[in-house]
Amino acid sequence: MTRTNGKVPGGPVLSVEDLAVAYKIRGGEIEAVQDVTFDIQRGEAHGIVGESGCGKSTVTWAILNFLGANGYVKRGSIKFLGQELVGRSGEELRRLRGDQIAMVYQDPMQALNPSMRLGDQMKEVLTVHRGLSDKEAEKRCISMLERVYMPDAANVMHRFPHQISGGQQQRVVIAMALLNNPALLIMDEPTTALDVTVEAAVLDLIAELRRDFDTGILFISHNLGVVARVCNKVGVMYAGEMVEVALTEDIYKDPQHPYTQGLIRCVPKLGSDKASSTLYPIRGRVPPPNNRPPGCVYGPRCDYVRDHCREVRPELRTLPNSVQVRCHYAEEIDPSQWQPSEDILPPKIRQNGDQEEYIIQVKDLKKYYEVQGSSLKDVIGMGEPRYVKAVENASFNVPKGKTLGIVGESGCGKSTLIKTIIGLEDSTSGEAQFLGLDITGDLTTRTEQLIQELQMVFQNPDSTMNPSYTVGQQIARPMLRFGTVPKNQVREEVVKLLNLMRLGANYFDRLPRQLSGGEKQRVGIARALASRPDLVLCDEPVSALDVSVQAAVLNLLLEVQAEYGTTMIFIAHDLSVVRFFSDYVAVMYLGQIMEIGPADAIYALPYHPYTEALLSAVPIPDPSAKQKRIRLEGSVPSAISPPSGCRFNTRCPRRHLLPDGGKICETETPPWQEDERGHRIFCHIPRETLLTFEPVIQTKERAV
Amino acid sequence: MARFIIRSLVSTVITLFIVSIALFLLLEAGSGDITVKILGVFSTPEQRASYRNQLGLDDPVYLRYIDWLIGNEWRAERQVGLDLVTVEDPVTGEDTWWADVDGHLVRWSLEDGELMQMARQEDGSTVASPADVVWAVDENGQESFWGVDDKNNAVKWVRGEGAEVWVLTKAGMRKEGDGPQDYIPLRKGLLRGDAGKSLQYGRPVSLTLWPRVRNTLILAGVAFLVVMPLALVFGIIAGINEGRPIDRFISVTSLGATATPEFVTGIFLIMIFGIWLQWLPAVAIFTSPDAILENPLLLALPVMTLTAVELGYVIRMTRASMVEVMGSPYIRTAILKGMPYWRVVIRHAVRNALMAPITIIMLHVNWLIGGVVVVEAIFGYPGLGKYIYDAAIFGDVNAVEAAAMVTVIIAVMTRIIGDLAYTFLNPRIRYA
Amino acid sequence: MAVAQPTAGAVPSQGPSRWAKMWKSISIVFESRIATVGMVLVLFWVIIGLISLVWTPYPPNAPEFQQNLPPNTTNWLGTDHLGRDLLSRLMVGTQVILLKTRLPWAGLVFPIGVAIWGVIGSVLVGAFLGLNAGYRGGWWDQVTMQFLDALIAFPVIVLYLVVIAALGQGDLVVILAITVTGAPGVARLVRSLALDIKTRDYIRAAETRGESPWYIMFVEILPNARGPLLVDSMLRVGYAIFAIGTLGFLGIGLPPPDPDWGTMVNEARKNIFTNQWAVIWPSLAIASLVIGLNLFADGLREELTRYQK
Asked: Which residues is B147 bridged to in the sheet?
């Protein structure tokens, strides 16, 4: 491709210096971003990582001067190809946007206009900026769509956003951004809304485009693993400041700033488990922008803080190894000598031994939902009833005091499965028993006692608590309802639970809006425990939390399990978290359990081909790790008419190993292949063949 | 999309059905003895009872609902044993009922115990002759005959037992002998365009109603045509300037306009344009239902009043929707694609912004009709609103029922149009 | 401790005092200039009404003066076509709307006006129907919405006319009419709120505790709908006053002897060529009160949504 608009071939594409962005609020203003400095060279992908609220998105809006009515660049400069962007007129910026600076957004469904055909949305980038004719623009768009591996590109041009899948939408957004061959491409969490296998494919695409287009990429993400896969340079942001900038290899191998070190300790490594490793959350919480401490912003949470840090704000300085870091004592800190401070002791893990007493036994459980078709017959109720086969023949047992993790991508039926177990839905057929009591019916068929024994922890911290009632009222409610605690002791008991959650009695009268996400999640756990259940179902309890908070909540759950001997079923889409947390793991695809067994067996050979694909898609925060590259073709089929035989057969990358290209996968339901440890694989490919695969991930320490 | 439209249609039909039942029962229960209204408070109980019988009010309520909705000649035909047909009276334009005897249109009357047969001629006159009918004998040995009388009733005469009935004439009640024993007042029913007779005027409601409906549609239509473009333009201007002085000005003015009752607006407009400025006639005199076609200036003040009230509402809806759309991520995308501002507004925002208000605006049409009632009452405008108002004040049950059903049908039709427009504008439904 | 309360989830709070909390929630009104203006207008009429309960310049129904006087020093706002003092009548006109309801039995009077009772009625009925339709869904929803669709299909004024044609005039009939016409709107609002709120996890949590649908609807959902519901109710009081005025204007409003503004306009417009004051004052009164309520509600809504962000 030829560059039509490159002016300064040598210098950086983007050079941000001492940038400060402020938002005016009632009675003053807040500086969301302070003193941010970084450069992006041509062909370079510069990542910015940080937790929510650290100001990483604000930086991108500042570059595009899209700060809304109340935001403005207070200090500093933003140079694009040597030209200053700050203070430029709207019209000049408009010419740059979409032409030389393009952007890709977090949620592609939201970012595309729902009532315009995709082709029209793409073409106007060319017709407006380049003055191309409609026909020429169409041709360019189609070839760009083909470039991003969009199947059936010409046809997609005539479609509306809702008619294509999320992964395809993001490809359209990327293609649209690349149409004018921009010098700078800004990507703000481009894969966060996508499933892990789709995410892997999009990340591959981004890495490939970066090589081919010679474009500078600014890549924003909260996920260390994603950044490691795409970027060659990473900046870490904390509380509106850039605290460390380094090459990707260095930052994961040898982090300099205590915050970066803390972040890396928070994340479970893929393959590590609770028995052999510990997660160390960072204590405290991110200060709000209007209440940042004097001195080092990270000071109050830093394990190495000294008086000097509390008084003097460190500058971003360059170390001899060319890493830039904002810390007074970076040279003196050795992370390998780090000891957790006493207030974040690792949780006790209860070794329950191998009990054979199963608390929950599920056999061939099915859940179908009836759906209404759209034909005339269906509307008047004459059509054939059709079903979404959300869960098909699920069978598993969970021993008392153990944890079963369920992983799978969205729509795999994992949420339906636990809804059925807890009784929010009744089951269509099959058996399910809790301590010998039937739980196939919904809540209306269950006794008070049974209801009390099964409780749930929810995903979204913002909706887990009723905003109208105080923390105390909400935790007390289950105790009162089930009468587990005499009325005059309720308050005492609630406070006890609050203490266990590390919240303290002063939280009793707080309203949910006064709590942070992690605190709300803890209250949610306390409420689930209030009725003293034997089985707690956790539906992605940490996936909406920042990593440092995530670690704390995971530790808390482990502690609860140790304290009460609670059995748990734990759903998550993050394979590392599930592996860390669970004793047993089930992998689901399209309503079907594909593989189930002890956690270590799932993450080691032999794998089910789908598990293998999932593992190879996981972004690992370790650029030195070798990861097998297996990408699934196509998208998940409809659960209304799932593929016959093995449900995975339409996308299975391994079925060619079977004779006839795996004809049998389409015609026959696979057998359960079980070993002596209870590890079961639902596949036609013989276990022996599966064992001959290479491990997916190989790092210095371990192979997964 | 088909599913969406069919659902909407099915729901509409059910809605209309429920409305018709509710309306019928409500007026049935509330209007009391309507014979008092017709015959006056000085009528005797005997007169009223006789008249009730003639109006078929002694039938059970479900039967009368069915009569009202789909007519009753089918059940009269079973009694008479002949096809019953209607012919338009050349003088009054009203429908008259006849029995079809081998192609001849016939009615009967009982005179001095003798049954007379009146055959209709081509010119509309009738020729009377003694009827050669066979009296049917029932189990009591009573000889009776079902036929059609000259007042459009299917009636049952009993031989030798002409009943004494009170007949309403222009001069008052008159007692007549030779009356029938039982009446089925023939009607085609609302579904076939026959809403019965106005109790107030004694003429079929459908004849007087249609010119009124037309006038109202003209009034509302003109108001709609004035309101829509203005409202959308102002709403969009306010929406894209959210929080700026021009938005404040448009928002507060339109809020003031909607929150002011129509009669206040109307009266002020009369005072300003009719009394102080004397530009327009303060009191319009509508000499005939067709007056507005002859002098369209008479429409000016009513249309202005309706516009003032509606304009504000639609502006506010459009503004709210525009504000929401302008803050959406896809507008951000369009801006960050470097599209010129007006291209963003017109190509990206407006269509999405109009989707939500269009259904609400269409739902609002029945509010407009409410406004029409008041506006027509202020200006004495001969429309549906005034009709329904007059009928309600008089307690003219048939007229209220018919006119209310018409307003409901108008409201429901506009809702369907709104639904269709929504499906058309929204590709998520159109290409679901 | 009052832990026995079955509704609130129990345990009394010991936070800042009730008054401080109330002041905090009221003070958001003053954040918005629009809401403040609206509240001043509304309070103005409430105070006028309260004063009129104990004092008016002259008896409102006594024709003591010359007819059709313009404003002057004795009659500040002038007199009407029967020689009654307009100011006194205007003041008393607030009572039936905002402050009292006349019962048909032996001249009994009940506190709080017709407009407000009507809105309370429609909120009660509407919230009940809307919660059931929204939370239970399915069959409940279908039937309720179909029924409400039918009610909504009636143009409001036509519905008023029909109700009044059927039941006659009277304060209670007007309350009923306002309830019937307002309930569908409230139900739709509550239903949409319930549909949104019921997807929240805390509703799942209540369900997994085996709470009854009634508990979930009224204890878990309804309190979280109170903001929008309050704003909507305020708008509805405005519409109710609007409607009462209109009915009065059409000559079928609140029955005499107490004057109501719509009836005043209706009577005065017959003399509009000779005396415009008698039309202007009650028209302004009704418009200012309704606009005041609308401004108040609008400003409040803006502040509430900003508060949530």
From this structure: B155
